[in-house]
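Thread amino acids onto this structure.
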């Protein structure tokens, strides 16, 4: 276990997270996305009938976004008690896959999380012998650091690191991808040892060319793996349908940001990586005995539009 005093730089005083959020200068789409994801995870974890814990997510999301997601859950007849949002299900599935890669036969001892946002795995999952590297744009990385520093006293125990170390790597993948490996190495990353690269909710916001370059630059020592979530073509087509957007206006904001679907992504991984497993998250929910909230406004089979996660191996 990590040293019981090994907090992630807790501050002596706490502050209202809203003051931190209001002061940030991060791109608003990125900000709203990471806050929404954290709020969904936090609200799902509040349901005692759902076996899921996310003690820091509420603080990282902020009260205003928590309130919005709570209202949605309370008002929606398809998202009632005992159901879990697909965002939280995705997080749970990736949790299990990361644990398997680090504690299973692969025995990977360093994880690189790209587009880290408000992820909390170093504080929730037991990785006492794993070095954890979070990569995100500098403003987001700094914002998360400040939020963790200002966590209120009752949450201080939740800032105990469960990893051997946590390194934040401020980097804009869109403009400075060639700096990824040098920055990781400068923070203690072993370029010759196997690594697990995690990309949850990232690659479909990138173009095919950007994904192609990303997978060319990723650390790929023998034994390395990658975990990637991606949207199917049917979902991308659906959110761009004007009739669907009329019924569900929030898709108007999402649609322009989603650039790459799974079919397109498969052609971008290059010769250094092989996709060894594809998991449909709707199927994952059924197999794991979880009840997944579904949107009744979607007329397609929910299995067809469910996000997938991919297990990839370096070749």
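Threaded sequence (315 positions):
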């Amino acid at each position: 276990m990590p040293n019981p005093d090994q907090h992630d730089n807790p501050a002596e005083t706490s502050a209202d997270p809203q003051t931190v959020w209001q002061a940030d200068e991060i791109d608003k789409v990125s900000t709203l996305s990471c806050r929404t994801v954290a709020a969904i995870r936090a609200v799902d974890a509040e349901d005692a009938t759902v076996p899921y814990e996310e003690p820091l997510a509420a603080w990282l999301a902020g009260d205003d976004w928590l309130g919005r997601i709570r209202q949605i859950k309370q008002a929606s007849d398809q998202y009632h008690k005992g159901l879990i949002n697909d965002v939280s299900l995705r997080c749970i599935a990736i949790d299990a896959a990361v644990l398997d890669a680090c504690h299973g036969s692969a025995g990977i001892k360093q994880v690189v999380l790209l587009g880290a946002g408000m992820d909390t795995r170093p504080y929730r999952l037991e990785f006492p012998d794993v070095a954890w590297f979070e990569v995100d744009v500098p403003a987001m990385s700094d914002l998360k650091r400040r939020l963790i520093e200002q966590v209120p006293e009752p949450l201080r125990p939740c800032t105990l690191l469960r990893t051997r170390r946590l390194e934040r790597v401020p980097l804009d993948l869109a403009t400075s991808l060639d700096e990824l490996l040098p920055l990781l190495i400068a923070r203690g990353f072993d370029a010759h040892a196997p690594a697990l690269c995690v990309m949850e909710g990232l690659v479909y916001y990138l173009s095919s060319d950007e994904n192609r370059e990303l997978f060319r630059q990723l650390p790929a020592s023998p034994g390395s793996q990658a975990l990637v979530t991606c949207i199917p073509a049917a979902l991308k087509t659906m959110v761009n349908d004007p009739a669907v957007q009329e019924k569900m206006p929030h898709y108007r904001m999402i649609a322009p940001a989603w650039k790459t679907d799974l079919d397109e992504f498969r052609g971008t991984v290059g010769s250094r990586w092989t996709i060894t497993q594809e998991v449909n998250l709707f199927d994952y929910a059924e197999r794991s005995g979880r009840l997944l909230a579904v949107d009744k406004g979607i007329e397609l089979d929910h299995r067809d539009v469910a996000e997938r996660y991919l297990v990839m191996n370096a070749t």
